[in-house]
Amino acid sequence: MKRIWNNWEDLNFCRKDLTINSMIFIRLLLLLMPLSVFTQSNTNFILGMGSCLDQDNDQQEIWASLEKEHLTEFFFLGDNIYGDKKDGSLEEMKSAYKKQTNRLPNWLNQIETNAIWDDHDYGVNDGGGDYKGKKEAQKLFLDFWGIKSPDRRAKGEGVYFSKNIIIDNKTIKLIGLDTRYFRSSLEGDKRNRTPTKDINKTVLGADQWSWLENQLAEDLDILILASSIQIIATNHGFEKWGNFPHERERLLRLINKLNKPVVMLSGDRHKAGLYKIGNLYEITSSSLNRPLPKWLSTYWDATKKETDEFLVGEMFYEPNYGILEIQDKNNIKLELKNKKGETLNKLIISY
């Protein structure tokens, strides 16, 4: 809260030269002035997000649009660089991080940034827990994002994290999951992954599950849960929580028990969409600057168009970013925008 004057004594410099009537007039005038003059009326929390950011592609226009959003924080949802190799070597990863350092806009240094990884900044395409280079890859990730002790990620395995944000006496719990470091092997072909029937397979691993359950046992008013791969979506053959149905069910059951507003964030798909299942919502924002070739997106729409029962509206292939805004009237706005800042789709969650 910011005032024009801290208190009435700040007017002492002029009291000697003012008549009693003048002072009364000034006081009445100040009382009638809009409250916004005395306070910062915009207490909204605005979280920008995106994924699939190729260090070799142009990204200037989309960052210019994001700067105009006056963000509180930004969330990098994975594939924040493209440095993976088929053999799992990390030399190209190091080069990609170095190049991306010079591509990100300076204004990001003025706000809080959050990051999780996906396969292309993990080290191997569609990679999981059996990737031998994951410890070295985590060190590169931590160095790039400036994550140091006592942060859990600096001393433990995996890049999952949690933090609380307090706004207007409300606790917003922001959680980033690691869907790579501990994940069991996938089944099916690359573009036709099939749901496993093996209930011993996992997305998060035992330690991360235990950690997540403890986090959600804490007091919170709003939960923002980030996963590099989609949680709600079911109607496609690519990576998703639905490839591990028992894990997806466990996660949805866990967050449903909260009986609090929940928004899930995801990336990965090189397309964007909004999803709703019951009272749970998900915003998938992808890609920031690496869209699918036009011929491919046209072919998929003609032959395998996604019509997921939980999808709200259409999916969008063009470069995009997401906005989550917690407004001051018990509303949460989810919005997808193209690189020019034009709205593609949006919805309002009232709680």
Q: What do these coordinates show?
A:
The chain has 351 residues and is of the alpha/beta class. The chain folds into two domains: 1-41, no CATH class; 43-350, Purple Acid Phosphatase, chain A, domain 2, CATH 3.60.21.70. Helices cover 24% and strands 23% of the residues. The chain is built from nine helices and 15 strands. The chain has a seven-stranded mixed sheet with strand order 4-5-8-9-11-10-12, covered by helices on one side. It starts with 11 loop residues before the first helix and ends with a strand.
Quick structural summary:
It contains nine helices and 15 strands. The chain is of the alpha/beta class. The strands form three sheets. Strands 4-5-8-9-11-10-12 form a seven-stranded mixed beta sheet, with helices on one face. Strands 3-2-1-13-14-15 form a six-stranded mixed beta sheet, with no helix packed on it.
CATH class division of the largest domain: Alpha Beta
The Rg value, from CA coordinates, equals 23 Å
Q: What's the number of structural domains?
A: 2
CATH topology group of the largest domain: Purple Acid Phosphatase, chain A, domain 2
> What ranges have pLDDT less than 50 throughout 5 or more consecutive residues?
1-42
Order of helices and strands: HHEHEHEHHEEEEHEHEEEHEEEE
Please, what is the CATH homologous superfamily of the largest domain? Alkaline phosphatase D (PhoD)
User: What is the SS-derived class?
Assistant: alpha/beta
Mean pLDDT: 90
DSSP helix count? Answer: 9
Please tally the β strands and state the result: 15
The CATH architecture category of the largest domain equals: 4-Layer Sandwich
